[in-house]
Amino acid sequence: MKAKVFVTLKPSVFDPQGRTIEEALHSLGYAGVGDVRQGKYFELEIEAATADKAREVASSVADKVLANPVIESYRIEVE
Fold it and tell me: Burial letters for 16-48: b for 16+ Cβ neighbours within 10 Å, e otherwise?
């Protein structure tokens, strides 16, 4: 099964890269774009009998390796 893991900074954490992207978009004429937040995306191919088991494995991987739980949160989608 394929698990998709989306890691983003928590809302309370300042995102300087997102802010830089937002400013660049404004300078390119995209004035209506605001509050850009950047993140990371991972695809994991997981051997599991059920989607719930795949989600459990992906969650463990995200907790231990992919995300810094102090400043980042994540969400998982399993196909």
Answer: eebeeebeeeeeeeeeeeeebeeeeebebebee
The predicted pLDDT at position 39 comes to 97
* Residue 37 structural domain: 2-78
What span, in angstroms and rounded, lies between the C-alpha atoms of 59 and 69? 12
Please give the helix or strand (H or E) that residue 54 lies within, else none: helix 51-61
Question: What's the number of domains the chain is made of?
Answer: 1
Dist. CA 50–CA 30, nearest whole Å: 43
Average pLDDT over residues 64-70: 97
CATH number of the domain that 33 lies in?
3.30.1280.10
User: Quick one: pLDDT band at residue 20, thresholds 50, 70, 90?
Assistant: very high
